[in-house]
Amino acid sequence: MNFNITLEEAQNLILGRCQPVETEYVDLNHALGRILGKDIRAKENIPPFSRSPYDGYAFRAADTLEASKANPVTLEIIEEVPAGYAAQKKINIGQAVKILTGAPIPEGADAVTKYEETKSNGTYVEIYTSCKSGENIVPAGEDVAIDEVIAYKGTVISPPVVGLMSALGITKVEVHKRPRIGIISTGDELLDITEPLSPGKIRNSNAYALAAYCKELGAEPVILGNVCDKTEEVAMFINRGLAEADMVITTGGVSVGDYDVVGDAVKAAGAETLFWKIEIKPGSPSLAAVKDGKLILALSGSPAAAMVIYQLVGIILIKKLAGWSQVFHQQTEVILKKDFRKASPRRRFLRGKLVMEDGVAYVETIGGQGNGVLRSLIGCDILAEIPAGSGPLKAGEKLTGYLLY
Ligand code: AMP
Ligand code: MG
Predict the structure, then answer these.
(1) Residues 6+ apart with CB under 8 A from 163
(2) Which of 193, 237, 251, 300 for a ligand 1 pocket mutation test, highest count of atoms within 8 Å of Cβ?
């Protein structure tokens, strides 16, 4: 078992033991936000034919070689083609077709001029400029050419991907199933949210916050309930969770106190512990274990500490399970907006909000940074890293920010 390891070691240990969940087919109109199970390759061009981007006239560019304001070229209008129809006639020397936006370019034509730049009496049209071959013609495949990949396996289906799949006539799409995340809350002090407070008790907020975070990521939370600080009970819940879900997250009882039974419970459940404790603040007392290919991530009970480790470790694990090909956070340099007065003997992550001012990225901390301050995660879209061994920091200090969205 690995004890007191770096964040990166923790991430890699769990990623190495986790495989994406299987795929299923969903209707295109339910595909938004899902993770592609295979590349989407275009079987047709988009658009499928060369078309006019304007209302105007289509003709042979060669006919307009000599055209100028003073010396317009006059062409005979042989047909009109609205969008949705194809020209019946082929364009020959000296001829033009009146064409509307989106209509296919008639055979023989290789240039288009806008109405506004021509003069017509209905039978003939005057062209005032010399056009190049291909001018104002949208070629077939301008958007997507046949055989191109429009979206890769392991990426999120976004609105334009939905649009392009529609253009290709794709009605069903292969996506990863939503991973099911079992959530267990440990602690004798926990009440369910429907219960009135009594001395020494608090309501379980971790399960609901974690469930909400999982949903936000497209996973399916399964709240398994509250369990008291007893090894056998927690072990039973873990096994129930593993049976019902693709992985399990627990909160509470993972530190070194007399009632911190989760480490033992994981063993009693028959799982192999991968690590215990990560060298960061907050959330250092965290543990990961694996049983039959399914992971258990045990987080501190302190709400903010639990959510930060969820963000730094849980999210990448769920993304891997969910089939994402990119699971790590994007990082960017950010400037600390306000002084941070505490020293950081250990590597620390500050909860903050990314604020752009005059093109510079700042991180603004939200509320207190205590382990129990869940409020500090409202609007938190970045975790700013303070290296181990840093003293109190002044505003203006450069930090590395881990982007959460
Ligand atoms: P623990 O990690 O069990 O030592 O708990 C640390 C702190 O988090 C204690 O103050 C607990 O009461 C609190 N806590 C534990 N579980 C939860 C929970 N599910 N929701 C809210 N607070 C919790
Ligand atoms: Mg406890």
Answers:
(1) none
(2) 251
